[in-house]
Amino acid sequence: MFIHAADIHLGFKQYGSDQREQDFFDTFLKFAERVRDLKPDFTIIAGDLFNSRNINPHVFSRASEILDVIPGPIVCVEGNHDRQLAESFTWMQFLAQQGKIILLSPRWKDDPFAEYDGERGFWVKIGDQVVKGMKYMGSSTKESLKRLPLEEDDILILHTGVVGIDIHVPAFVTKDDLISLPPKYIALGHFHKPFALGKKVYNPGSLETNSFRETHEKGFIINDGTVRRETIKTRPFVDKEVYVTGLETVDELEGALMFDHPGAVVQIKIRGVMEIDRNLFSFKELQENKGDALIFRIVDQSYAPSQRTVVVDAQSRDDIEWEVFKQLAGDEGLAKFALELMEFLKGKPEPDQVIERMTKYAVESDLIPSKGG
Predict the structure, then answer these.
(1) How many CA atoms lie within 13 A of 31 on its CB side?
(2) Paired strand residues for 173
(3) Could you report the per-residue pLDDT of 7-34, keeping only the tens digit for each?
(4) Based on the domain organization, do 215 and 345 belong to the same domain?
(5) For 59, which of 39, 41, 55, 110 could close a Cys bridge (C-beta 3.0–4.6 Å)?
(6) Predicted structure pTM score
């Protein structure tokens, strides 16, 4: 039996909250204690153990302590958040040197597919099972996969997105690329939503909620001959819409924003026509009156009465943005990419992720030649 988890993102101080940073540690500890109870032969973490390649000593120390709770070998690959842009030393490599984890990836510059030597290597044998792994390779993933020596009895660990699963995350391989590979089980990380492709490609999703796009249940995968997902209870995220059309006073606005969600992370999207004089109130001040919620965010997507001539109440902000972007771009494909990129940037991606996403669009749109062209 083995356990498969991914995208832990330790050290993420979400919304600048110390408590949310602690939540990520607490959830990882819940996972570690559950793994201790299950007693698997080994545990897979398919990338992004850390939220950033630049972490402070406290984050590293706490991560190391929790890893000690997990029994047996912990087999990892580096995700895009873990790795360095250059071939320099990483915190994941330091964990491997300490014997906390087994860190797999081809060593492309010398003996690329060597057995794990206690510090580096492409494959490791645990009992009768051979496990192989490759770190996040970005736009090079597809070509790198073609070079890997793989067998039908292998387990392969990858940190990569899959085209068509989530438009908010760069993806460079297709469903067919993965299903056609020989290994009997392919353990993915990178996309925070769980999914399965066929009967051998599995993505467990993240252990914690990294954004309001991820309000599904969190969990990990157990493979004991059958594959099943087990959930972990996390802090609730509540996403609501409040339409302010027709409200005339600040008291009415405050009343519309009152919700009882103790301990939750709450996001309120303000929509419709804001007829109340904005000089009479501050959304920032209203946001601070969060009641029992841990975090209370107000996202203002309303518009002024003077804008009635260009939009109608029935239109959502998404509809309005789509019409505006189409007019500005003069091309629906470019408008769609611009809107997706704008949404993607809200998640504060790493610079190399932004570059990869823009390069992929440019190649696919024939704005620049592909490497093979």
Answers:
(1) 33
(2) 162
(3) 999 999 999 999 999 999 999 999 999 9
(4) no
(5) 55
(6) 0.81
